[in-house]
Design brief:
Blueprint: H1 2-18, H2 37-42, H3 44-50, H4 55-74, H5 87-105, H6 116-128, H7 137-154
Helix pairs in contact: 3-6, 3-7, 4-5, 4-7, 6-7
């Protein structure tokens, strides 16, 4: 018992002299620019729905969509194989990314935020249309802008 007190005293003395080890700071919100007025209008329903979401869910939403944007924009690099040849690929990618991160990893049940899926689908259709089209630099730029705007909604700035 006496040995335990001596050890505890030494540890407390070391902490008092040296301080606690520094811990890495948690990552802040992703650095996102405010979307333009047109993109804010397209994603307005998503922003409205996410205003009632928990801070954890909003942060996750923002992280997922910012990563979707980074992935899609990386496809423009001439040194990588093109992954998204048409808008079906973009649509499938966003669905898979959200299904894995939002539902499976975070445990958000379908319908937890009523209308969120429909609002995302509407934003996609309003931005890229319902018809299948080739992913050109202009289409890719629209999709990346949409993904960034959806991430921006998640950090409750919509």
């Amino acid at each position: 018992m006496k040995l335990a007190r001596i050890i505890a005293g030494c540890v407390l003395l070391a902490v008092a002299i040296c301080g606690l080890p520094s811990m890495p700071a948690p990552q802040a919100d992703p650095a996102l620019e405010t979307p333009d007025e047109a993109m804010r209008t397209v994603t307005n329903d998503v922003a409205r729905i996410l205003r009632v979401a928990s801070p954890v869910d909003r942060a996750l939403w923002a992280q997922v969509w910012s990563k979707v944007a980074i992935t899609a924009s990386g496809d423009a690099d001439s040194n990588v194989e093109v992954v998204f040849s048409d808008t079906r690929g973009l649509r499938a990618f966003q669905i898979i990314a959200l299904n894995i991160a939002w539902r499976r990893l975070a445990g958000n049940a379908a319908g937890k935020y009523a209308g969120l899926g429909e609002a995302c689908e509407k934003a996609f259709n309003d931005t890229l249309g319902k018809d299948v089209q080739a992913v050109t630099p202009a289409v890719r730029a629209k999709f990346v802008a949409l993904a960034n705007a959806l991430a921006w909604c998640g950090i409750n700035r919509g």
